[in-house]
Amino acid sequence: MVIIVFLSRFPGLHQNTRRMPTFFHGERRYFKNQIKPNQSARKPAALPLQESEAPPMDKERIFVVVLGTDQRGLIARISTLLYDHDCNIEDLQQKVMDGTFVMTMLADVTGCKQGIKELRTALEKQGEEMGLTIMVQNEAVLKAMQRV
């Protein structure tokens, strides 16, 4: 097998353009660092996490879903309630769709002062005061439902 390497210019660029090596392999021509004829254009799948990188299994997390009319201070009041119960908000997504406020929170409740039942009761009470529907679901329950 013979591979010929020479420098070529890209058509349409200025004369002082940097030269790149071009390779001829059989009847196909390709530039260095481009996808070769027998390579896939897809990126390799993510490698599995090492044991030290995996999230600790003793972490207890909940999903908090909030629905209702958009008003000022929604996120502040709900996140303050979670803070007062020593919960950590790990992820939050919110959107207002046609005047309806929709929010999903993922919170770590491992260090929660009280149990999840008391936290759920406090969140539901807060929702009633603000005219919202607040639903709390344990992450482990959702994952178990996905496996079925």
Automatic annotation (TrEMBL):
Name used for this protein in its record: ACT domain-containing protein
InterPro entries on file: ACT-like_dom_sf, ACT_dom, UPF0237/GcvR_regulator
One Pfam family cited in the UniProt record for this chain: ACT_6
Gene3D superfamilies tied to this protein: 3.30.70.260
Limits of the ACT domain: 63-137
Upper lineage: Bacteria, Pseudomonadati, Thermodesulfobacteriota, Desulfarculia, Desulfarculales
Species the sequence originates in: Dethiosulfatarculus sandiegensis
NCBIfam families in the cross-refs: PRK00194.1
Family annotation (SUPFAM superfamilies): ACT-like
